[in-house]
């Protein structure tokens, strides 16, 4: 017996048993302060390497796309002319929209109290479940605050907060659920993340009309996330397995690997 | 002291590479496991006694940075170091002939083992059995991961050898 206790195998077994216990007990109250300190120390270095990597990645993609850029430039010029005409028309619609928003008490998008934050790291499993940002409780960040880009495109919501950094649960995270509506027909549903498969629109009533190309925005139900934040565009529609609801796969408007900066909605102004 | 500083920096760099560099280049794709491969290469260079403590530190660093429960990666690294020491005593590990072939086999075994353990923890965390296969991924994904890990392993092995030589750290 004493011979066995002195073996390398026994030592490994004991240490493994301790750490298995820690994984299953997961005493977050003990480890969260340690994690908070660790990620705060690591965050500046992660931020540097993250920005550096995004820069290299952009250069790499740019070099590969130079030929394509010429054609795209030509197309964009034509598109620009069309958009100029359209923008004149939308100016009028915007005025009408502002009036309507005021009437149904939806906040105008410019009136969010936004906190800018830089990305410092991402989910190392490569499934885009979460990102880490360089703003934390010291900047007034709290769990469940929505995280957006380009003023109204929803990225996810704050999941864990430490003093100087926060973990953002992305919409693609399987644990993420969100109440949404379609812009075109106001069909209500729930958006859920799928492991490596993107975002799925679910629980849409059969009576509601949803089509490929419809835009999906947050419904504001629940109060945590304001109404009107853009989530994605429906790519395809199909019935759920039990045929009680309709489902749709969504195309997300953002590419996480190209993100360097996001905004956290702290509240309304 | 110099050894502690150098090892800590290299471990932290491996964690940063895994969380802030690799995901940018391989977004939503199969990612190699930089920290795991660093630990494997290091264990081969240093041996069980000299590296077991560092493997635990690497696991804790990685778990803290990856927001996973403390112990997940410690457990994996611990088994990897033991596994390496068990076989390196019995087999000749070098960059030639069968030694090279064994390196390939080690990387495959360690990658599959790591995926199995992480998938088991995902089942426990989400309390759902289907999470196992979701987390584990398909054969294609595992194959790609193995290829990425082979590249990372040889990269780390050469880099760590050079670091040890440059800083005049003792080698086996």
What is the helix tally of chain B?
7
Might you state the CATH topology name of chain B?
Arp2/3 complex 21 kDa subunit ARPC3
The geometry of chain B reads as globular
Please name the CATH architecture of chain B: Orthogonal Bundle
Average pLDDT reading of chain B: 84
Name of the level-1 CATH class of the domain at 177-251 in chain A: Mainly Beta
**Would you count the extended β strands of chain B for me?**
0
CATH class of chain B, please?
A: Mainly Alpha
Low-confidence stretches of chain A: none
Q: Calculate the terminal CA-CA distance of chain B, rounded to whole Å.
A: 19 Å
Q: Report the CATH architecture of the domain at 177-251 in chain A.
A: Beta Barrel
* Assembly level: heterodimer
For the largest beta sheet of chain A, what order do the strands appear in spatially? 1-2-5-4-3-12
Integer-rounded radius of gyration of chain A: 23 Å
How far from one another are the termini of chain A?
A: 70 Å
CATH superfamily of the domain at 177-251 in chain A: Rod shape-determining protein MreC, domain 2
Strand content of chain B: under 5%
Structural class call of chain B reads mainly alpha
Largest sheet of chain A: 6 strands, antiparallel, barrel
Task: Explain what the structure shows.
The complex is a heterodimer of chains A (269) and B (172). With 269 residues, chain A is an alpha+beta fold. Chain A is 36% helix and 31% strand. A 6-stranded antiparallel β-barrel of chain A has the order 1-2-5-4-3-12. Chain A has a 6-stranded antiparallel barrel with strand order 6-7-8-11-10-9. The longest helix of chain A has 38 residues, at 66-103. The relative contact order of chain A is 0.13. Chain B has 7 helices and no strands. Chain B has one domain: Arp2/3 complex 21 kDa subunit ARPC3 (Orthogonal Bundle). Chains A and B meet through α2, α3 and β1 of A and α1, α3, α4 and α5 of B.
